[in-house]
Amino acid sequence: MMTRMAASRNPLPPSSLISIPKSWLIGLGVLFIAPWLIAAGIYARGTATEAPGAAAPLPLSEGGGTGPWGQLTITPIVISPPLEYISDDEGAAEPIVWRMPNTTSDVAASFLAWSGMPATDAARLLQSARPDPSTAGIALFPDAALLRSLTPEVRARLYLQLAKSRFNSAQAESYRFLGASAADWFAGSLVSPRTRQIIEPLVYRDGPFLHFADLDMVKSEISDEEEWHGLRKALMRNRTVLVRLNVEAPAEVEALTHYWGISGRRTDIRPLLESIAGAGPAGSIDVVHLLPALARNLLYRYPKLSAGDLDKPIIANCLWSSLNFFAAEPDDRFLDVTTALNTLKSDYYLIESGHQLGDVIAFLDGHDTIFHAAVYLADGLAFTKNGTSPMAPWTIMSVDNIKAFYRARADNPRLIYHRRKDL
Asked: Would you give the DSSP letter of residue 291?
C-alpha cells in the first residue's frame, strides 16, 4: 500500500528510485539509496548571495527542429489529475522536522550559515536541535514563523539539500512545476487569490522547475475542503507538450514512414502520412497517432489503479514504461527491477549517436547508478513517467528538462542510450 506522501506527491520519492550500479552491465546489483550529501565542504563553496536553485530557466519546451523524424511543431500544455484521483482524506498535518543524518550540531550550524539564514534565526533554530538516533544525526524543528520568513533563495538552498535525504520526505517529494513563476503555476486554476497569497511566497526554484514543499504547514490556514482539494489538484499540475509532425510533400512520406513506423508498424503509419502529405496548413498530424499502441494509450494520462494493482510490488514506473514501449500488452514482469535490468542487459545494445524512436535512455547520477529511464522520441524529446505515484502522468518532455526535474539526484546526469536488438 502506498504511503500518504507517496500517493500525494508527483515526483518519484528517493526511497523508490531505481538505483542500479553501472556494473549492471557485467553483473546486476540493486541498491535503494538516498544519500545525505551535506558535508562541511559544501558550505565553503560560495557565499550567501549564490543560490544553487536559481539557475536561469531552460525553455519550457525544446525541439521543433528538422531531422530524420521530419519537421516538428511544439506546443506547451498543462495537465492535472482528475479530482476523483485526489484523496479527500490526507490525515492530520505532520510535524515539521528537518532530519540531518550523520550530522553534528556544528555541521548543521555551518549549513544554516551557508544557506544565508539570518544568524538570529539560525541560533533560535539550533536551540531546537535534538539527537536523532534513527539517522545517527540530529533533527531540527523549525516553526511556521521561521519558515514564512525564508526568502526564496534561502529556501532553495535549504530544501534542495534536505531533499537529498529520504528522511525529509516533504522536500524530497516536493511538488514541482516547469514554469517561469508561481503565477504561471496557478494561472487558470480555481485556486482563490487568498490561497495563492498563502502559497506563492513559499515557492522556490531549482533551474527551470518551481518547487513547493510546505503543504503540512499551510493546511491549518485553508479550512474550506473544496478549496483544499482544488489547491492540491493545482499543485499536481504538469507541463508537457503537444508535438505535431508537418508533412509538406508526398516525397517525404517514405523517409518519415521509415522513422516513425519502426518495429513492424510501417504499413500502419504510411497511410496516415500519405493522407496529410502536401495538404498545406492542414498537412500535419499529432505524433501521438504515430506511437505504438501502448504508449499512445498512456500518453497525457494518469494510472488507473484497480484492487489487483495493490498486490503488485510497485505500480507502473519509468522502467516498466520504457521496456513496454513497443509492447502490444504490458509485461508486468518489468515491475521487478532485477527482471527489468536483466532484460535491458540481454535484449538491448548501447547506442552512442543516431538516436531513433524507441531508444531507452538511462539517467545515471554521480555514483554511476541509474535513477530514471525514458524513451527517446525525436528531436531531443522523450516519453517519460517521472515517478511511481498515480499522480505522475505519462508525458513528453525534452531530455534536458527531464534532467532538470531530477537535479536533486544529479546536477549533470550521464545518459546511456539502449536500442532493442530486434529493431
From this structure: S
